[in-house]
């Protein structure tokens, strides 16, 4: 695998909601690099999982305030990509 693509795709988002849309609509959700474009995300998914991507939608996740004792800070910002695959294709995330 190419390390360039592994830097773009960080991890799959494994939640109840993302599991439901992957089963019913053929869409998969991934945490991606904040600076990655939709074209780069599409190329990375196609190369890593050997599938045909039809559409990529992205969401910027803003940092949240957190405190530990008397210290206050922010969580890291993140970016999520919702990837729609071509008809009949799946990704095995197990």
What are the key terms here?
globular; 4-stranded antiparallel sheet; two-stranded antiparallel ribbon; alpha+beta; 94 residues; Alpha-Beta Plaits; 29% helix; 6 strands
What does this structure look like?
- By secondary structure, the chain is an alpha+beta fold.
- The chain has one domain (3-85): 2-Layer Sandwich (Alpha-Beta Plaits), CATH 3.30.70.
- Helices cover 29% and strands 37% of the residues.
- The strands form two sheets. The chain has a four-stranded antiparallel beta sheet.
- A hairpin with a 2-residue loop joins strand 4 and strand 5.
- The model has no long low-confidence stretch (mean pLDDT 93).
Tell me the fraction of residues in β-strands, as a range.
35-45%
Which residues sit in consecutive blocks of at least 5 with pLDDT less than 50? none
- What would you give as the CATH superfamily? RRM (RNA recognition motif) domain
Number of helices: 3
Order of helices and strands: HEHEHEEEE
Largest sheet: 4 strands, antiparallel
Helix content: 25-40%
Number of strands: 6
Distance between the termini: 18 Å
Rounded Rg: 15 Å
What's the average pLDDT?
A: 93
* Broad CATH class: Alpha Beta
Query: What count of domains describes the coordinates?
Result: 1
CATH architecture descriptor text: 2-Layer Sandwich
Q: Quick one: overall form?
A: globular
Strand numbers in spatial order across the main sheet: 1-2-6-3
Write the layout of secondary structure elements.
Elements: H1 3-8, E1 9-12, H2 16-24, E2 27-32, H3 38-49, E3 53-61, E4 65-68, E5 71-74, E6 78-85
Antiparallel strand pairs: 1-2, 2-6, 3-6, 4-5
């Amino acid at each position: 695998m190419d390390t360039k693509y592994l830097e773009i795709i960080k991890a799959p988002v494994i939640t109840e909601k993302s599991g439901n849309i992957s089963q019913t609509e053929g869409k998969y959700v991934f945490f991606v690099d904040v600076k990655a474009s939709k074209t780069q995300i599409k190329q990375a998914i196609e190369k890593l999982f050997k599938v045909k991507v039809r559409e990529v939608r992205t969401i910027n996740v803003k940092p949240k305030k957190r405190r530990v004792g008397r210290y206050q800070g922010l969580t890291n910002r993140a970016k999520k990509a919702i990837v729609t695959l071509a008809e009949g294709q799946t990704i095995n995330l197990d």
